[in-house]
C-alpha cells in the first residue's frame, strides 16, 4: 500500500505498448477507493471522448477498436495516454503510457560478397529498423543456417560470423527480418573460400570492435569483437576503469563476443576488447561504451497525513533511476503551483504547506520521470476543522517602539471565545519566505505583546491566531510595520605613538557597528575644553595620523560612527607622548645602523689585525729562539779562541796544549773518559775574552787543522754539550830541515771539524 491513498488509489496503471496497424488495443486502468469513483482518459493531455473508435470499458480500461498510425483526418492513435480517477476526496492521475505503432523499415545495410582464404574469418552484416526490434535470421543457399555449428555465430543485431573457414562454407547468404509489423528479406551475398590454410605469420588485428550501446535494465547486451591473425589471436575482455566484469550473466559467443544478460546499472562502463598473440605481449585493442538506464522508482513514498488548520503539512517523495528522475507534484491531478505558503525543497523531493486551511485539503501526487520510464505515488492531506472554533482575532495593530522593538496589540475574537486557551503571534520579516516565520505564545488574558530583538530599519509582518483544545482559529488580518533606524554602535579605538609630535588612531571595521556612513574623529589637550574636529572619515577608512602635537601634555582622542539616523556613542582614549617616547627609548633604544655597520666593519678589521699580529709574534719568537741559539754558538767560538790563547805566562805556554773539537770521534771518546769537562760559566769566569788576546794568540792552531785567520772561522752547529777541555802531554814539534821542506802531516784519523 506504499504510495497509495486509502480514499483513492490505482491498482493497475496503463503501460507502454507497441500497437499493430488496424488491430485492436487495450489500455488497462483499475482504481480502488471510496465510491463513487469516476474514471476518465487523456491522450497527450487532452480528454478522450467516447467514440466508435475508442471508448472506456466497464472496468475502467480504454479500448481502441482499430489502431491507426495515421488516420484520414491526419490524426494518429500514437501518443501518451493516462487514466484519471476522482471521488469526493480528490483526483489522481496514472503514469503516462507511451503507445507506438509497430513498424519496419527497409534494410539500410545489406550483406556484401566476400573472398576469404581457408582457415580465416568471414563476417556478414545486415541492419534494419523496426518496432518492436526485428528478429534477424540467416539463410545459406535458401536454407536456414545451422546454428548448431559452433563455427557459426549469430549476433542479435544482424551479424553472422564464421570462423575457421572451410571449402564447404562457400555459398550464398541472405538475412530475414521479422516482427509483428512485417517480414523482409535482404539482398544476397556470396562467400568464396580460396586456397589452403596459410602458414605465413600475421600480426593480430581486430576486424570489428564493440559499438556504443544504450539499453535498459534487464535487457541483454552483446559486445562484438572479432579478430584475425596467424597464429590465431586470443581475445580477452576488461573494463577501462579496472573493475572486474564478473561472471554472473556473462557469456562468450563464438571466439570473442561478450554477452551480458539481465543488465543492471552497475554494468555501465567502457569495455575493452584485446586480441593477443599467443605467448607474447603483442596485442591490439578496441573499446566501446555500455550505458544502462533504469526507469524511475520510489525509494520513499509520500504518506497521507491529517493536520489541524493553521499548522504545517510536509510530504516527502524520494525517487531513483538512471538518469536521475525529475520530480513533479500534482494537486488533484493539476500541476502544483508554489506560493508563499507552498514550497518545494531538495530538488522537489519535499513539499511543505504552511498555515494550512480547508482549501489545501486534496490528494497530492508525486510523479517521477526519466527517459527510461515514469512512476507516480499519491497521498492525501486532511485538514482537521472542528465546529465552534473561535473566529479570527480582531483589530490587530503594530506600533514601532524603537530600532529593535515593536508592540503588537489585538482584540479578542467576536465568536466562540469561551474555550480560548491562548493566542499565538506569528512573526517574520516581510521579505523572508513563509518558512522563516516564527511564533510567540501569549496567555488568553493578554492582548498585546512586545516583540524585541528585531533588526533596525526592517519591515515585519504579524498575524494572530486564537487556540482552543480542539484547534486554532483562522488567521487574523496581516499587519506590516517597520522598525526605526538605529545609530551605529561604539567603534573600537587604538592609539599608537609615532614620534614625539604625532600619534596614529586606528580602529577595526565591524558588522556590529550596523549601517554607518563614516566616522568622526576629535582630539584635544586634556586641560582645554575645545576639541579639534570633527575630522570626517569615510566608512572604509580604519586609521588616521594626528600630527603637530605637543610632547609635554596629555591628549584626549575621541572616535564615533554616524549614519542618517545620527551619531553613535564615542570611544575615548588618552595618550601622553612624553612618557611613551621615554619608555620607548628605554625599552627600544634607537638603532644607529651606520654606526652598527661601522662597528661591524671595525670588529672584523680588528679580528684580522689580531690574527696577523699573533702570527707575527709566533714568527718573531721562532726567529728569536733561532738567533739566540746562534748567539750561543758564537759565544762558544769566542770561548774556543780564548782556549787557544790562555792568559798564562809565556814561559808556560808550551807546557800544555788545549785542543778544542779537533780530534776524531775515537779521540773525543777518549777525551770524554779522561778529560776534565767545564761548563760555560767556568769558561766565562776563567777566560774573559779580549781582542788583544786574540791577536797575541794567532800562532796557536787546533790539532790536525791548518792555521786559518780568525775572520774565516766556520761556526759548527754542534751542541754545547759536545764541547770539552782535554789536557794532553805536549809532543815536541819536529823542526823542519834546512832545505825548507815542511814536515810530513800527521796521519788523518777522520774528518776535522773547523771551529
From TrEMBL:
Pfam families: fn3, I-set, Ig_3. PROSITE patterns: FN3, IG_LIKE. It is found in: Membrane. Residues 392-486, 487-583 form the Fibronectin type-III domain. SUPFAM superfamilies: Fibronectin type III (SSF49265), Immunoglobulin (SSF48726). Residues 731-748 have a biased composition (Pro residues). It comes from the Eukaryota. It is a single-pass membrane protein. Residues 664-674 have a biased composition (Basic and acidic residues). The chain crosses the membrane at residues 607-627. PANTHER family: IMMUNOGLOBULIN SUPERFAMILY DCC SUBCLASS MEMBER 3 (PTHR44170:SF20), PROTEIN SIDEKICK (PTHR44170). Belongs to the immunoglobulin superfamily. DCC family. This is Immunoglobulin superfamily DCC subclass member 3. It comes from Cephalopterus ornatus (Amazonian umbrellabird). The gene is Igdcc3.
Amino acid at each position: 500500500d506504499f504510495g497509495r491513498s486509502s480514499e483513492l488509489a490505482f491498482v493497475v496503471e496503463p503501460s507502454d505498448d507497441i500497437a499493430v496497424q488496424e488491430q485492436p488495443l487495450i489500455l488497462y486502468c483499475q482504481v480502488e477507493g471510496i465510491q463513487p469513483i469516476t474514471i476518465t482518459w487523456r491522450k497527450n493531455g487532452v480528454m478522450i471522448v467516447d467514440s466508435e473508435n475508442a471508448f472506456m470499458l466497464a472496468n475502467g480500461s480504454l479500448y481502441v477498436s482499430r489502431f491507426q498510425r495515421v488516420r484520414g483526418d491526419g490524426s494518429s492513435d500514437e501518443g501518451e495516454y493516462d487514466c484519471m480517477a476522482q471521488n469526493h476526496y480528490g483526483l489522481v492521475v496514472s503514469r503516462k503510457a507511451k503507445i507506438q505503432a509497430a513498424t519496419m523499415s527497409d534494410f539500410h545495410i545489406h550483406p556484401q560478397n566476400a573472398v576469404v582464404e581457408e582457415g580465416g574469418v568471414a563476417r556478414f552484416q545486415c541492419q534494419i529498423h523496426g518496432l518492436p526490434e526485428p528478429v534477424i535470421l540467416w539463410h545459406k543457399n535458401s536454407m536456414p543456417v545451422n546454428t548448431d555449428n559452433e563455427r557459426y555465430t549469430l549476433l542479435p543485431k544482424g551479424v553472422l560470423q564464421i570462423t575457421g573457414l572451410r571449402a564447404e562454407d562457400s555459398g550464398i547468404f541472405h538475412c530475414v527480418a521479422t516482427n509483428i509489423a512485417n517480414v523482409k528479406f535482404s539482398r544476397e551475398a556470396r562467400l568464396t573460400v580460396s586456397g589452403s590454410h596459410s602458414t605465413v605469420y600475421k600480426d593480430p588485428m581486430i576486424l570489428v570492435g564493440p559499438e556504443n550501446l544504450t539499453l535498459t535494465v534487464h535487457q541483454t547486451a552483446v559486445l562484438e569483437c572479432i579478430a584475425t591473425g596467424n597464429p590465431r589471436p586470443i581475445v580477452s575482455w576488461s573494463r577501462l576503469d579496472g573493475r572486474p566484469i564478473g561472471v554472473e550473466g556473462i557469456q562468450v559467443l563464438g571466439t570473442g563476443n561478450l554477452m551480458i544478460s539481465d543488465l543492471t546499472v552497475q554494468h555501465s562502463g567502457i569495455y575493452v576488447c584485446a586480441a593477443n598473440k599467443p605467448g607474447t605481449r603483442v596485442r591490439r585493442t578496441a573499446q566501446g561504451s555500455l550505458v544502462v538506464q533504469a526507469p524511475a522508482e520510489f525509494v520513499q513514498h509520500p504518506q497521507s497525513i491529517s493536520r489541524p488548520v493553521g499548522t504545517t503539512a510536509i510530504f516527502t517523495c524520494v525517487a531513483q533511476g538512471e538518469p536521475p528522475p525529475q520530480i513533479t507534484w500534482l494537486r488533484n491531478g493539476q500541476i502544483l503551483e508554489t506560493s508563499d505558503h507552498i514550497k518545494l525543497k531538495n530538488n522537489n523531493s519535499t513539499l511543505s504547506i504552511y498555515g494550512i486551511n480547508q482549501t489545501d485539503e486534496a490528494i497530492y501526487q508525486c510523479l517521477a520521470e526519466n527517459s527510461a520510464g515514469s512512476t507516480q505515488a499519491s497521498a492525501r492531506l486532511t485538514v482537521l476543522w472542528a465546529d465552534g472554533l473561535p473566529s479570527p482575532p480582531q483589530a490587530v495593530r503594530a506600533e514601532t517602539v524603537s530600532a529593535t522593538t515593536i508592540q503588537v496589540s489585538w482584540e479578542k475574537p467576536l465568536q466562540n471565545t469561551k474555550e480560548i486557551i491562548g493566542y499565538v503571534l506569528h512573526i517574520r520579516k516581510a521579505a523572508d519566505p513563509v518558512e522563516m516565520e516564527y511564533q510567540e505564545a501569549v496567555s488568553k488574558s493578554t492582548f498585546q505583546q512586545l516583540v524585541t530583538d528585531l533588526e533596525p530599519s526592517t519591515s515585519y509582518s504579524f498575524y494572530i491566531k486564537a487556540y482552543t483544545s480542539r484547534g486554532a482559529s483562522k488567521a487574523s488580518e496581516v499587519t506590516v510595520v517597520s522598525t526605526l533606524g538605529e545609530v551605529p554602535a561604539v567603534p573600537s579605538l587604538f592609539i599608537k605613538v609615532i614620534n614625539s609630535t604625532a600619534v596614529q588612531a586606528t580602529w577595526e571595521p565591524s558588522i556590529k557597528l550596523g549601517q554607518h556612513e563614516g566616522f568622526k574623529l576629535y582630539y584635544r589637550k586634556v586641560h582645554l575644553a575645545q576639541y579639534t574636529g570633527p575630522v570626517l572619515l569615510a566608512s572604509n577608512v580604519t586609521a588616521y595620523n594626528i600630527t603637530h602635537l605637543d610632547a609635554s601634555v596629555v591628549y584626549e582622542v575621541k572616535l564615533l560612527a554616524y549614519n542618517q539616523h545620527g551619531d553613535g556613542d564615542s570611544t575615548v582614549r588618552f595618550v601622553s607622548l612624553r612618557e611613551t617616547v621615554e619608555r620607548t627609548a628605554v625599552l627600544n633604544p634607537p638603532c644607529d645602523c651606520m654606526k652598527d655597520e661601522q662597528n661591524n666593519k671595525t670588529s672584523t678589521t680588528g679580528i684580522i689585525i689580531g690574527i696577523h699580529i699573533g702570527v707575527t709574534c709566533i714568527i718573531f719568537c721562532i726567529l728569536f729562539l733561532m738567533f739566540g741559539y746562534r748567539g750561543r754558538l758564537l759565544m762558544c767560538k769566542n770561548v774556543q779562541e780564548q782556549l787557544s790563547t790562555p792568559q798564562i805566562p809565556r814561559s808556560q805556554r808550551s807546557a800544555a796544549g788545549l785542543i778544542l773539537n779537533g780530534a776524531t770521534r775515537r779521540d773525543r771518546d777518549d777525551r770524554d773518559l779522561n778529560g776534565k769537562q767545564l761548563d760555560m760559566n767556568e769558561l766565562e769566569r776563567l777566560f774573559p775574552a779580549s781582542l788583544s788576546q786574540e791577536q797575541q794568540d794567532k800562532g796557536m792552531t787546533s790539532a790536525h787543522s791548518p792555521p786559518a785567520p780568525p775572520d774565516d772561522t766556520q761556526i759548527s752547529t754542534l751542541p754545547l754539550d759536545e764541547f770539552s777541555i782535554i789536557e794532553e802531554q805536549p809532543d815536541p814539534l819536529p823542526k823542519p830541515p834546512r832545505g825548507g821542506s815542511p814536515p810530513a802531516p800527521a796521519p788523518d784519523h777522520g774528518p776535522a771539524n773547523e771551529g
